[in-house]
């Protein structure tokens, strides 16, 4: 019991001495042992690494899970060391709603058929997103968390010890200085000076030892950067795969929707502006954009009479078909991928369409399904 009381009293005395030394340094009333420039640079680099790792980690978490309530829930499950419950992605939930809507509104109607197709694509997008989140969490977020909760905590602990050793060292320096000043006035025995010098040597040794331990940990930040660089490459790889899958799924969806004939036939609403700005004089974009109103003339334009259509005097061009296209009505020409057709434009035509000819057949064709050849 007496031993514990003495230890508590000793600890309280050390804490008080350090507090006094720290306060006097702040007010410029005591000297402070300065670390060398290399050590200070290592400290600044470590602090920057910690701060930016925290910011990148938090923003990546927001990217992967935009819902703050869901993030809090996942954090609590992680702290309780319990498995996070499976959660459907927004794309999968949208797919479910679209499928249910199609079932109720009529799966055989043009709207119902389209809802089903879009639902299937959204489900694939949701699954791709789930895989991306899982991969990114393991390959990127986990290493960042491990650094903040492991290596950084060790560095912070050793830095606090180094700070305490420095305060002890400077307190010993101050005591020795006072002892020598008292000795010079012949008011202190020599053994008090010897005691102060011995305490200073011990404090200096402990400080040097702790400084070396802390320096080695700080220099390990370079290895941390190398590890985070590797993890960053893995994150970009998983993100690339995710977006490539999304592009492929949506491209397939557009091609499927382009085969739905007469989807908008009979509507009384004004035609929407065309989605593509491709003109007959430029090559089509790599991803086909399904014409907004397939097979209908623009408002105010008379219906096209194909029998009376003749190639313009300026000539015609050859075009290679990029994707299969099913004609929506008799004014359009059905297309097969990779076939060659002759195309030309007429004054007043919608720039998203051309007149296409194959043998003795002719009809309107969407520009975005063609590669115009020079």
Automatic annotation (TrEMBL):
Q: Which PROSITE patterns match?
A: BAR, SH3
Q: CDD domains from the entry?
A: BAR_Endophilin_B2 (cd07617), SH3_Endophilin_B2 (cd11944)
Q: Which GO terms describe its biological process?
A: membrane organization
Q: Any idea where this protein resides?
A: Cytoplasm
Could you confirm whether the keyword Cytoplasm appears in this record? yes
Principal cellular location given in the protein's record: cytoplasm
Keyword Nucleotide-binding carried by entry:
no
Entry keyword set: Coiled coil, Cytoplasm, SH3 domain
Gene3D superfamilies xref list: Arfaptin homology (AH) domain/BAR domain, SH3 Domains
Q: Name one GO cellular component term.
A: membrane
Q: Which family does it belong to?
A: Belongs to the endophilin family.
Assembly, per entry: Homodimer, and heterodimer with SH3GLB1.
Q: What is this protein called?
A: Endophilin-B2
Q: Which organism was this protein described from? A: Castor canadensis
């Amino acid at each position: 019991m007496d031993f514990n009381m003495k230890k508590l009293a000793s600890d309280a005395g050390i804490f008080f001495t350090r507090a006094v030394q720290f306060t006097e340094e702040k007010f410029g009333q005591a000297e402070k042992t300065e670390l060398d420039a290399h050590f200070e640079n290592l400290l600044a680099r470590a602090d920057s690494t910690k701060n930016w790792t925290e910011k990148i980690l938090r923003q990546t978490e927001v990217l992967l899970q935009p819902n703050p309530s869901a993030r809090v829930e996942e954090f609590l499950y992680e702290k309780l060391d319990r498995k996070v419950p499976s959660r459907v992605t927004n794309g999968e939930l949208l797919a479910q709603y679209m499928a249910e809507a199609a079932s109720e509104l009529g799966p055989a109607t043009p709207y119902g058929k389209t809802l089903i197709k879009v639902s299937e694509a959204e489900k694939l997008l949701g699954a791709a997103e789930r895989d991306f989140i899982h991969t990114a969490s393991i390959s990127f977020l986990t290493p960042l968390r491990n650094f903040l909760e492991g290596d950084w905590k060790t560095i912070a602990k050793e830095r606090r010890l180094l700070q305490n050793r420095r305060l002890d060292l400077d307190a010993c320096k101050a005591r020795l200085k006072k002892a020598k000043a008292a000795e010079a006035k012949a008011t202190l025995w020599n053994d008090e000076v010897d005691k102060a010098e011995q305490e200073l040597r011990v404090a200096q040794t402990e400080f040097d030892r702790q400084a070396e331990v802390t320096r080695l940990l700080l220099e390990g930040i370079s290895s941390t950067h190398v590890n985070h660089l590797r993890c960053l490459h893995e994150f970009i790889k998983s993100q690339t795969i995710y977006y490539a899958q999304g592009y492929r799924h949506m491209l397939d969806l557009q091609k499927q929707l382009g085969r739905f004939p007469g989807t908008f036939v009979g509507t009384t609403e004004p035609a929407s502006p065309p989605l593509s700005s491709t003109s007959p004089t430029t090559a089509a974009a790599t991803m086909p954009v399904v014409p907004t109103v397939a097979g209908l003339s623009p408002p105010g334009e008379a219906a096209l009479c194909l029998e009376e259509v003749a190639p313009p005097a300026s000539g015609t061009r050859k075009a290679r078909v990029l994707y299969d296209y099913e004609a929506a009505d008799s004014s359009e020409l059905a297309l097969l991928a990779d076939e060659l057709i002759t195309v030309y434009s007429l004054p007043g035509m919608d720039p998203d369409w051309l007149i296409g000819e194959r043998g003795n057949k002719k009809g309107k064709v969407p520009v975005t399904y063609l590669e115009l050849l020079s």
